[in-house]
Design brief:
The complex is a heterodimer of chains A (283) and B (292). Chain A is mainly α and 283 residues long. Chain A has helices at 2-40, 44-47, 61-69, 71-104, 108-121, 125-138, 145-169, 173-181, 186-194, 199-215, 218-223, 231-240, 247-267, 269-280. Chain A has 2 domains: 2-40; 70-280, MetI-like (MetI-like fold, Orthogonal Bundle), CATH 1.10.3720. Chain A contains 14 helices and no strands. The N and C termini of chain A lie far apart (56 Å). Chain B is mostly helical and 292 residues long. Chain B has one domain (36-291): Orthogonal Bundle (MetI-like fold), CATH 1.10.3720. In chain B, strand 1 (38-39) and strand 2 (47-48) form a beta hairpin. The longest helix of chain B is centred in the C-terminal third of the chain and has 34 residues, at 258-291. In chain B, 42% of the residues are buried. Classes of the chains: A mainly alpha (283), B mainly alpha (292).
Chain lengths: 283, 292
């Protein structure tokens, strides 16, 4: 009897402990986001008021002033969108080609270059900005979409290639051998056999590049000044105006910038997890 | 053997990727190495100075402060993050209702930009009106004076880095935990093992490779820390919260000392490679095992 009771009690305590831990995890992960998104819909005057307000009346006034005062921010969003799409297309295309090459052929050179690829990914990006800065200026590429697209895509090509290789490895070789018997070239095999079957991998790679390119700060900060300025950079300018940060407007901008990619990550959760476990840590 | 098994056929497929990496990362990296032995600034032709750049930064107290700050932040961030990630992974592996939605919640910070995260954490820890500041005051704990006290600034940087990157560690560890076969636990329970023994004898040893990989990756990536510090404290007050990447940026783009910046850059490369060596050696062996 008492043994049963203590066992039941221990089970109950373990459950309680897990529930409390879970509550903390949720508060930790979602709390900061919810706070800012909530504040974006709160009148500017009430955001930091210490006395609790009688009832929260959501308002769009912060979004309206964001629209009125920070046209720059929306130009930045458009720039971010262009750069993100460009970098994603480039990285997915190049990674798929290379992933196919590494999956289907073996040689010393291929093994060595795959290894070099992974090693290169480990170099800190800020180091490459030093020599690239004068080169980019010399080519007149400063403040263009092209330089950001190229940088973002390149920094994900090695991981993208490893993810694609892992996914393409799972496509049975018998399929391309059959096509080869029919006289198909490498490119035809890629188009007819591999591409229709490696969509999952391409989505996984795309997610990584999209989230990275949409959010990236360092390269945008160094290589863009006006025309190609991305949204995170405009947000940093809002924080930077130290004498008068308009918090409500800043929260509205943060919310507008975050929500699309947040919804995207939640919807593509499965691909994100698969991609990360398929090759992210290998490349 | 069919002619298209010839590895030369693979070259056109891998060359675009290799060319991009060579142009954007490898050649600039080597050029940094060459530049680090030269005195140069924007628009000037470099003059060979031997090891003078290295001597200069190694004699610069700001460099050492930046290095110390980086090491402290990286050690705190990586270890706390892995412990948290392990805890959350085990919690989720235990089986929870609405698991898909709960995982989505844990992954949410992955979608947040560094700038967005700085806005969030700065607001919560605002010295006057921040929510957490008020909570801490309510509990009788003195809040973080992150814009004044350097250690507090770095602590806030560490907190928000952990928050931003926990999803990565969590996914790696969660996947590793799920790949442990269930019958191992069943067999252990039949033998009368308790929860702690299962953890010590099964979970921990089998997850160790994944833990080490996650740790290495986080060391290498945390070491690059730039945006969070730049946007939160800008390295101040009085350059006291600088990290190595900030030091490099300031030397190059504010003080126009390209030599010192490239020497710092090359030291960063060497440190990253040294950290990565363990991982790369393992990978090298695996690749050759596959080839054989």
């Amino acid at each position: 009897m008492t043994a049963d009771l203590s066992l039941a009690l221990r089970r109950f305590l373990a459950r309680l402990g897990r529930a409390v831990a879970l509550a903390f995890v949720l508060l930790w992960s979602v709390g900061p986001i919810a706070l800012i998104v909530g504040a974006a819909f709160t009148p500017e005057k009430e955001i930091f008021s210490v006395t609790p307000q009688a009832g929260w009346r959501p308002t769009l006034e912060n979004f309206v002033s964001l629209w009125a005062k920070w046209g720059d921010f929306f130009a930045g969003l458009a720039n971010s969108l262009i750069v993100t799409l460009g970098a994603t297309l480039l990285a997915v295309a190049v990674s798929t080609l290379a992933g196919f090459g590494y999956s289907r052929w073996k040689s010393r050179f291929l093994a060595g270059s795959a290894f070099t690829m992974i090693a290169l990914r480990l170099l800190p990006p800020i180091v490459t900005t030093l020599p690239l800065f004068p080169i980019v200026n010399a080519f007149g590429l400063n403040d263009t979409y092209l330089v950001l697209i190229l940088l973002y895509a390149t920094f994900f090509v090695s991981m993208g290639t490893m993810v694609m290789r892992t996914f393409i490895d799972q496509i049975p070789r018998e399929l391309d051998e059959a096509a080869m018997m029919d006289g198909a070239s490498g490119l035809q095999i890629l188009r007819r056999v591999i591409l229709p079957l490696c969509g999952q991998g391409m989505i996984a790679v795309a997610i990584f590049v999209i989230v990275y390119a949409w959010n990236e700060f360092l390269f945008a900060f160094i290589f863009t000044t006006k025309q190609a300025k991305t949204a995170p950079l405009v947000m940093s300018e809002m924080i930077g105006s130290l004498d008068g940060v308009e918090w409500g407007v800043l929260f509205a901008a943060t919310t507008v910038h975050l929500l699309p990619v947040l919804v995207f990550v939640v919807l593509c959760q499965r691909h994100l997890i698969e991609g990360l476990t398929a090759g992210a840590t290998k490349g | 053997m069919l002619p298209s098994r010839n590895p030369r056929v693979a070259l056109p497929f891998v060359i675009p990727a290799l060319a991009m990496l060579a142009a954007v990362i490898l050649l600039p990296g080597l050029y940094v190495f060459w530049l680090s032995f030269h005195a140069s600034s924007f628009g000037q032709s470099p003059v060979y100075v031997g090891l003078a750049n290295y001597a200069k930064i190694l004699a610069d107290p700001y460099f050492w402060r930046a290095l110390k700050n980086t090491i402290v932040v990286v050690l705190v961030v990586v270890h706390v993050e892995l412990l948290l990630g392990l805890g959350v992974a085990l919690l989720f592996a235990h089986g929870l209702p609405f698991r898909k939605w709960l995982i989505a919640c844990v992954l949410a910070p992955y979608a947040v930009s560094e700038v967005g995260a700085v806005v969030m954490w700065r607001t919560m820890f605002d010295p006057e009106a921040g929510l957490v500041t008020r909570w801490l005051l309510g509990l009788g704990i003195s809040p973080l004076e992150w814009s004044v006290v350097p250690m507090h600034g770095l602590l806030l940087v560490a907190l928000l880095s952990i928050w931003l990157h926990l999803p990565f560690s969590f996914i790696i560890l969660y996947a590793a935990r799920l790949s442990i076969p269930k019958d191992l636990y069943e067999a252990a329970r039949v033998d009368g093992a308790g929860a702690w023994q299962c953890f010590r004898r099964i979970t921990l040893p089998l997850m160790m490779p994944a833990i080490l990989i996650a740790m290495l990756f986080r060391y290498i990536f945390a070491y690059r820390l730039f945006s969070e510090v730049w946007l939160l404290t800008g390295g101040g007050p009085a350059r006291q919260t600088e990290v190595v990447a900030i030091y490099l940026y300031l030397e190059a783009f504010r003080y126009n000392d390209f030599g010192a910046a490239t020497a710092t850059g090359w030291l960063m490369v060497l440190t990253s490679l040294a950290l990565a060596l363990v991982y790369l050696r393992k990978l090298h062996r695996e690749m050759h095992a596959h080839d054989g």
